[in-house]
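User: Please run a holo structure prediction.
Assistant: Happy to. Please share the sequence and the ligand.
User: Here you go; the ligand is S-adenosylmethionine.
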Amino acid sequence: MYCGDVLALSYDEQGIVVNELPWDTVHNGEIYFIKNNNTTYLTHGIHKYAGKYIPQIPSWAIKNAQYRMKKEHLNILDPFCGSGTTLLEAATHGCSSVGIDIDPLACLVSRVKTRTISDDVLLNLNVDFWNIFEMTTSNYMPNIDNFNHWFNENNIEHLSRLYETIRTYQSSTDLFELLLVTLSSIIRKSSNADNRSLKTYVSHTHIKKVPDALEAFRSHLKRNIARLIELNQVIKYSETYVHNPASSSESGYLPVKESFDCVITSPPYIKSMDYLYNQMLEVLWLGPYLGINGKDALNQYKKLYIGSQVRDKKYIPLIGIDEIDSFIGNIFKLNPKHAAICAQYFSDISDHLSATYDLLIPNGEYYMVVGNSNVSGIEVPVNRFVQLIAIRQGFTVNFDIGYIIRKHYMIFPRVKSGGLITTDWIINFRK
Ligand SMILES: C[S@@+](CC[C@H](N)C(=O)[O-])C[C@H]1O[C@@H](n2cnc3c(N)ncnc32)[C@H](O)[C@@H]1O
């Protein structure tokens, strides 16, 4: 059933009902139902991102780590930062942070979400932009095949003119990127593609009423400016860096050298998400800026993501932990390609845990959020397997707790026979 643009799930309140997760005492195996469902406060609502976690999770993890480490100012790493939920929470809790993500749109959203711009400049933007827009014409066409399949004539003209106007701000990175993110946030809704599907496609059964792109942009820009003005009032600290390993000048798996007190992250789920396919229209509109020009470049770029792609379907790496290898062996009997995806996923997670271990200070904390995806009809116990890998790496496991996912703004295919999987797991490791 749909509720606005979120999917409202029916649920049994089997979890422990709380307003927010308790930050001093939680016990292994507990499952929580978090009542507070305001997930778009400050700049959290600036751009949708499939796979985004609720800000209450990093907010709780930061308070937990501050309490346990007896330290207010933490240097936090989110190595799969997506749209920057952890980074914004770090900034509002007085912590510095570094975010890493392979997805260029996610990196852009993360930067815009955490960057403060003075109130005067923001208020001027809303006037200046429209003055420039009035004088701008455009023939810009992004590199998208079958353009008229995706957009109506009116919105093609408006989006193109908006893009051309935004380009006049190139010398002012802060405003330029804010405007690009605002444009990106209205692309899907201004297209003929279904708003809630994980894959970008035009549904012939669910006929969409497409809004006018200009009006959508006008109201989003106003709203985003208000969000940033609100952020100026509450942000305590904004030392935030965002790296994309594909474009970073630093080489290596994690392109950072400093050490961190705490890692808070949610890695990709196995086989549940093709981020570029999900945001195909947004990425292709912003293609020249994001460095992904056209469908071929997009298909090449996809190979860099963990979780959804199999790099070599004949190669099934051994993880070296019997329980995981025999599980993958059973998947192999059902579907060798799925076995390769699973094995590669746990091999990538193992490399990741080894690299992050080196970046954490002694006694540093790691909060990892994972979901147990379904592969070949079998639920993969990701929460257990990452613990086994982390222990082998040298981490100790303090606890794992679950929380019930209340809203999916997009429909995740993590289906069990009974419907959507509605629990994610937070695992706390210590170095
Ligand atoms: C579950 S999402 C994180 C969402 C984030 N917590 C948020 O609130 O927006 C996982 C992220 O991992 C990123 N990712 C996938 N493969 C990666 C890689 N090889 N290196 C870095 N990031 C990667 C994806 O682009 C995606 O943004």
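The radius of gyration is 22 Å.
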